[in-house]
Task: inverse folding
């Protein structure tokens, strides 16, 4: 009962914060064309049902979109968002979100989501500026939507388009005339150049949505005789995040092409991509020191082997970048009242995660330190520790490169006011030889159901995902009620379960009830 009283108290605070909201503007002036200002204000709050996880503060979103004509054939769009509260637990300040950093801890924060100029001169159109792209036709979990990096500070409830991070890009589209002669309608050719990478956004280790797979245990015990000397040791660990911005080099940019059209009722697209990996990827760097030996040296004494019984490991987590070459396509068509959609993508050198625990096992530690069966590599390590130095230990890659095939097929069919959706996705690792968080064949079955009531004033939605062969589950049920044409109240529950050796199962302790209030103008 206390949790729901807390939820009600948070709702009243959100309502108070949103009591005064400006309305949208739409105006036209001679010589200036038409300009409009629109946006939204949203407050949301969660109640964690497992108190063993970090808390998440209530959050207020403010968004403003300005659209305007720059002439007969040109217009501009600027989308600015502000966020206050939410996942950051101990924000280090407030200000503008950096487009160079992966780990950021700002609240309140302001971000330029999109800002571009669009020129239309048929049959050509072009966009220049910070943009978001939407490739693919599936309703849930797109295989081919790989152009934009994403933020993962609240990965399950945030809307897919809100999760995307705009990329600086030049887009050129050509509507091919006369395509109907060969039986193709609306044939479009699209070319996109992204000169440099904007990195993904990742939660900090003290936040609610920091993944368990990237964490490290607080200590590690090394048994006596493990390295054939000494009486064993206890290694205490400290994890901290470090930003490593990607290079601002044109040759590190990305290029993508897409050809789309309609043929005999089939909407289809073929695409190719060569550029930066936009999925999140991380690297671990470990430095080991012996505080007892350092203390003795500071007193002018000589350390001995027994001073290595207590060691410290500084583990640095930083973003990792890679290059991907990919090709694929998508299709959508209607059959018997149902709508069927499908996507497929083949990609080389995707970065696939391992568990950090696998890098910190005694067996992997020995492989990292020893150079042969006699473990001769431990001698210079011990000598450096006794000399008071911090020694780097290469524990291996937290993310490994793999060629993949991802595909998905989904269909929806309205029945008596209900709209059920069934979708299957599969990821195939073509050269798997490690124990990764993604198995060699990862199959995900998704079932979604939606219905409107009270003349579309009330909407019920449920989405459930089941992974195989490793068992993991996610499910969300939510109700949305239109208080007015501009105000919407939404509440629901998020369920996460499954093996911790999976991307979703590692969040099994993060079940929550949530409440959202949104006002658009």
Result:
């Amino acid at each position: 009962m206390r949790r729901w009283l807390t939820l009600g108290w948070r709702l009243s605070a959100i309502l108070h914060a949103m009591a005064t909201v400006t309305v949208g503007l739409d105006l036209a002036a001679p010589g200036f064309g038409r300009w409009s200002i629109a946006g939204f204000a949203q407050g949301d709050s969660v109640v964690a049902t497992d108190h063993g996880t970090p808390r998440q503060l209530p959050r207020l979103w403010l968004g403003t979109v300005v659209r305007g004509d720059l002439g007969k054939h040109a217009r501009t769009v600027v989308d600015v968002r502000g966020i206050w509260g939410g996942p950051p637990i101990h924000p280090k300040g407030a200000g503008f979100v950096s487009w160079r950093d992966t780990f950021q801890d700002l609240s309140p924060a302001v971000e330029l989501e999109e800002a571009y100029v669009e020129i239309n001169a048929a049959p050509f159109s072009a966009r220049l500026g910070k943009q978001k792209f939407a490739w693919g036709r599936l309703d849930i979990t797109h295989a081919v939507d790989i152009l934009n990096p994403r933020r993962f500070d609240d990965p399950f409830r945030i809307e897919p388009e809100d999760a995307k991070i705009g990329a600086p890009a030049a887009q050129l589209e050509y509507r091919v005339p006369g395509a109907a002669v060969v039986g193709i309608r609306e044939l479009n050719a699209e070319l996109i150049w992204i000169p440099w990478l904007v990195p993904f956004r990742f939660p900090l280790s003290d936040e609610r949505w920091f993944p368990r797979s990237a964490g490290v245990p607080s200590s590690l015990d090394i048994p006596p005789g493990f390295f054939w000397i000494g009486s064993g040791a206890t290694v205490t660990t400290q994890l901290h995040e470090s930003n490593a911005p990607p290079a601002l080099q044109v040759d590190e940019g990305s290029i993508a092409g897409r050809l789309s059209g309609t043929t005999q009722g089939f909407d289809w697209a073929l695409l190719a991509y060569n550029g930066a990996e936009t999925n999140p990827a991380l690297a671990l760097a470990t430095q080991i020191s012996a505080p007892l030996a350092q203390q003795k040296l500071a007193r002018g004494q000589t350390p001995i082997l027994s001073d290595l019984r207590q060691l410290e490991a500084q583990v640095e987590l930083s973003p990792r970048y890679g290059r991907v070459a990919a090709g694929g396509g998508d299709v959508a068509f209607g059959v018997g009242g149902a709508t069927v959609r499908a996507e497929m993508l083949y990609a080389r050198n995707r970065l696939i995660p391992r568990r950090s625990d696998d890098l910190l096992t005694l067996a992997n530690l020995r492989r990292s330190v020893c150079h042969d069966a006699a473990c001769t590599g431990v001698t210079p390590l011990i000598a450096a520790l006794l000399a008071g130095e911090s020694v780097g230990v290469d524990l291996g890659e937290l993310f490994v490169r793999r060629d993949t095939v991802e595909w998905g097929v989904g269909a929806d069919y309205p029945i008596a006011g209900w709209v059920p959706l069934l979708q299957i996705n599969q990821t195939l690792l073509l050269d798997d030889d490690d124990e990764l968080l993604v198995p060699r064949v990862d199959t995900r079955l998704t079932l979604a159901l939606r219905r409107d009531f009270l003349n579309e004033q009330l909407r019920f939605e449920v989405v459930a995902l089941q992974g195989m062969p490793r068992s993991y589950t996610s499910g969300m049920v939510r109700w949305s009620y239109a208080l007015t044409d501009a105000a919407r109240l939404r509440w629901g529950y998020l369920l996460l379960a499954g093996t911790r050796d999976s991307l979703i199962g590692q969040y099994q302790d993060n079940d929550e009830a949530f409440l959202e209030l949104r006002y658009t103008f």
